[in-house]
Every structure is written in C-alpha cells, then in structure tokens.
Amino acid sequence: MAALLEIARNNAALIAVLAPFVGAALAALAPAGRWACLAAMAAATIAAVAACDLAARALTMAAAPPVAESGLALRLDGVGVFIGALVATLGALIAWASPAFVTRAPQTPYAVALFLLALTGWIASAYAGDLVTLHLAFALASVATVAAAALGAERDRAALSAALRLLIAAGVAGAVLTIGVALIARAGGGASFVSLAHAQLSAPGAGGVGYGLAFGALAMMAGVAPLNLWTAAFYGRGAALAVAAFGALGVAALLGALTRLAAYAVVAPALGEGVSRALLALGLASVAIGSVQAVGARDLRRLAAYAAAAQAGCVLIAVAMGSPAGFAAALVQIFALAIAALALTIAAPPHGALEALDGLGRRAPFASLALTAGALSLMGAPLTLGFLGRWRLIEAGVGGGWWWAAGAVIFASLSAVFYGGRLIERIYFRRASVAHERVHEPWRVFLAPALVVAFAGVLMGADPSMLLRAADNASRFLTGAAP
Amino acid sequence: MAPAHVLQLAVLAGALALLALGASMAFTSANVLKRLVGVAIAHVGALTGALGLGAPATLALGGAGALLATLALGAAIAVRLQEGYGAVEGPEIDAADQYDEPPDEPL
For tag attachment on chain A, is the N or C end more exposed, with fewer CB atoms within 10 Å? Predict the structure, then answer.
C-alpha cells in the first residue's frame, strides 16, 4: 500500500491531469445526469487531492519534486503547482455543485463531460513542460468550454451566440498564440520551459514579438480589458456550468499561464524591461476599463466579467514589477479573483439581471451569503482575500518604488465599492419586485460549495499565513530552480 | 543578408498579414460563417508562419487539430443559430437577444 501511495505521489501531476480526462469519458457514457455528476465529483476530487499534495510538497521545500517520466511534457515550477492546486480544488467544488445545474435533458451528461475536459486542459496548462503543451491544453479547454456553453441553448437560445463569441475569441487567440510560440521557440532555441529559463536569445527582437503575441493571446482569452469585448455576452448568456467553470477556473489558469510565461521572460535581460512595460500598460488599461464597465453593468454575471477584468489588471501590474514580491502578490490576487468569481457565478440567480437580487437576502439567504462574500472580496474589504491581494500588491509596489501602482489599486477598490456595494444594497435593503418575489432558492444542498468558498475566503483573509507562505515560496522558485 | 533569411522574413510577413486579415474578418464580419472563415484564415497564417520559422512539428499538428475542432464546432453552432434565430447574421441575432434582454447602461 505504501509503495502504491509513493508511486501515486511521484505521478501526482499526471494523476491531476488524467483523472478529469478519464472522468469525462465516464460522464459521457453515463445513462443519466446524476451518474455523470457522480463521475465528475470523483474525478475532480482525485485531481484536487493529487494537485494539493503536489503543491504542499513543492511549496514546503520551495523546490520542484521530481516528475516521473510519463510521455507528457510536464514541468513543475512555483507558479504551476500553485495554480494547478487552485484550479483543481475549485474544479472539485464546481463538480460537487454540478447537480445544481443538472436537468433531465438528455445532453446533461455531455455538459458534465465537457466541463471535465475543460478542467483537464486548465490543469494541464499549469503543469505544461513546454509552450506547445500549454497551447494544446488551452485549445482543449476552450473548445470544451464553447461546446458546454452552447449546450445551454436548450433553455435559452442566446447561449448559442454566447458560445460563438467565445469560439471566435479563442480561435483568434489560438492563432496568435501559435505564431507567438513559434517566435519564442525560434529565438530561445526551443519551446520547453527548461530552454526558456536558460535561454540566451539569439534574436531578441523575434523573442520580444513572440512574447508580446503570446501575452496578448492569453490576455484576450482571460478577458483582460480592452480585449474583453466577448466576455459580457458569454458570461451573461452562456450555460451556467460553463460560465462558472470559465469564470473561476479558466481565468485563473490563463492568468497563471501569463504569470508563468512572464517569469521566464523577465529572466532574459534583453526582454525584461520591454515585457514589464507591455504588461504594465495592459494592466492599467484593464483596471480602468474593467472598473468603468462594471459600474455600468445591469446583469450580475456581466458585472462579474467586468470586475474580473479589473482584478486581472491588478494581476498584470503585479507581474509587471518582475520581482518575487510582485509575483507573490499576483498569485494571491489570482487566488482572490478566482474565489470571488466562483462565489458570484455559482450563486447567481437563474435570471441574472440586478433587479433579481432585490430582497434576495430574505428569499435565498445562503445564496445571498455567498454573493455578499464575493462582493466584499471584490471591494477589497478587510478580512477578505481581495483585501489581502491588494495589500500585497501595494506592498510590492512600494517596495519596488512603484508608488503610483498603489493609486491604480485604490482606484480599482473604490470602483468595486460602488458596484460591489450596489449588489449588497440590492440583496439586503430592497424589496423584491412582484416578478421576482416568487423565485425561491431551488437547490440549497448543492449551494454548499459556494458557501464553502465564501467562508474559506473570509477565513483565509482573517488568517492568511498559509496562503502567503505558499505564494512566497511559489515565487521563490518561479522557474523551477531552488532559490 | 542571406537569401534564405530574406525568404524567411517574407514568409513571416505574409503570415502575419494573413493573421491580421483573418482576425479582423473574424471580429468585424456580420455573417457568422464569414467570421469562421476569418478564424480559419488567421490559423492558416499562423501555421504558415510557424512552419516557416521551423517550429516543432507538434505545434503545427496541434494547431491544425485545434483549427479543425474550432471549425467543426463553429459550423454546428451556425446550424443551431439558423434553427434558433432563423438567421446567421450578427445584427439580426443581436437584435433578437436585445429584445429578450436589454443591454447594459451606456457609459
């Protein structure tokens, strides 16, 4: 038994990737939605346990554990194990909430199977050993997410146009990423992360263009403003399971990949400054545009999309600093963003208009609690993860002489106070309209994951030592080498 | 400058032009099928550029596979859009969606 456990631990990364893949096959073969959900719960839980064990070992010793030969190009580094554990854990939470999205429609098992396929891609992206694997992982995840979003057309035909928006954005981003990867590989002498870490760029110009294209592609897929023209339609009208999965897992995986790639890019002396400036410009634009868009949103899920763009901007600003403190702040910020997005998307009422939130505190107290926690985290209220992420960003900025970065963070927080506060005001201080008064919370039991996430967010904000230690250790072996 | 290098630069420039053309077509065309064609053109440009740069074969093969999956899925969505909306023109679909749900407040 101990020997088997040791083998499993040595192959933890492979298990984390393959468990949801096998689960997807089982879910697709399931005769009914409930069996597909059971397969999803089992597969995603196995992946989460493997990924968390891997992260615990790697982040405790601040060095990558050995990876067994598997045939897949995997590589463990600080950002990868941190993001892999985050994505796998949130994926398990969504899988446990999946019965809330299940209907008696015959395509339900396929929706669950597609969610697991997307989860496979997002976890694989965190452990990818080279840029080609990273590219293919995101291609798998985006195609599966589009298909899952389109399955929502049985309830609302607008899910089709929502899925199409993501398909077009992901298709173009995939093409841009292809040529970006080719340019990076050409300049660095290979596409593997090992070669990038030790690259003496033979053609810095080509490498710079390649990194720029790759960052642009990842930012477009993650919904970073102003490249987020597709996100409002997708979040607002896509199938609920697909939106919750993409909003929390996909965005975290994409921002994690961007952070990871930046960590390798800043090592190259010829590129470091240019990469920093480009990410900084994109980050500032995303904070400003995303915040303004969120203020004008009239739909909860669209608001979540715009708020995510603003938070993603903070992540890019942190990454642009290029220091270990900046990367650690980015990881905490990604963690906070994923938790808030999950709470907001998974607990959103079926009708996403803000008017549907009026009086929700009395009609659906559990959902309201999760939504409130998500809103407070967006606002950066003390004792929440959002506050922690921004505090670390300000610390890193001040430490690096970037005083004005604090101004961008404060602007993002003030905007979030407006739109997050508006959510709380509607939930607890308004009366429900006649149209929404009869809508009650239909799935109390399966709301548990959202509540767990909300409470975890509050608890981690109150006692963040474990998260901060993990983020600090992850940033200390960004490129897989011991400090 | 060696002729091979000039040829490689020309291939790369052409590939980037195709990529830009396809991307602009994908984002600005009103017709859903034209948008999918734009995605295909962008991918063809990217793959041409990648092959011209001597990128790993797995990248080209994976990119081609991703393109096929994207086009197949896009075609299926286009068929369902025609069934659901009676149109594959973006403005008509957007108008129907706005009738179902008004957009966000203008900023």
Answer: N
**What residue has token string 């102003």?**
A226
pTM: 0.93
CA angle centred on B6, ends B3 and B12, rounded to 5° = 145
Size of interface A-B (CB pairs under 8 A): 152
Which residue out of B5, B34, B97, B99 would a mutagenesis test of the A interface target, given it has the greatest number of A Cβ atoms within 10 Å? Answer: B97
Task: Judge: A182–B102 Cβ closer than 8 Å, yes or no.
Answer: no
The whole-angstrom distance between B68's CA and the closest CA on chain A is 11
Residue A226: cis peptide before it, omega within 30 degrees of 0: yes
Chain B contacts of A146, Cβ < 8 Å? 73, 77
**Looking at beta carbons, which residues of chain A come within 8 Å of B42?**
171-172, 175-176
Model confidence pLDDT, tens digit, residues A57-111: 888 775 666 665 566 678 888 899 999 999 999 999 999 988 877 666 778 899 9
Within-domain flag for B106: no
Please provide the DSSP assignment of B10-35 as one string.
HHHHHHHHHHHHHHHHHHH-SBHHHH
pLDDT of residue B106: 44
Do the domain assignments include residue B10? yes
Cβ contact (<8 Å) for A299 and B101?
yes
Evaluate whether residue B107 is within a structural domain: no
Q: For residue B55, name the pLDDT band (cuts at 50, 70, 90).
A: confident
Alpha-carbon distances of A411 from A250, A313, A421, rounded to whole Å = 26, 12, 15
Amino acid, single-letter form, for residue A96: W
Residue B22, domain CATH: 1.10.287.3510
The pLDDT of residue A26 is above 90: yes
What domain count does chain B have?
Answer: 1
Question: Mean pLDDT over residues A409-432, rounded?
Answer: 88
Domain coverage including residue B77: 3-100
- The residue ranges of every structural domain in chain A are 9-476
Mean pLDDT of the region A265-278:
79
Burial label for B100, CB within 10 Å (0-12, 13-18, 19+), is: exposed
Q: What is the pLDDT of residues A162-180, one digit of tens each?
A: 999 999 999 999 999 999 9
Q: Which of A163, A179, A298 is the closest to B105 by Cβ?
A: A298
Q: What is the mean pLDDT of chain A?
A: 86
pLDDT for residue A324 is more than 80:
yes
Structure confidence at residue A482 (pLDDT): 44
- Closest chain A CA to residue B94: A161
Q: What is the predicted pLDDT for the residue at A439?
A: 57
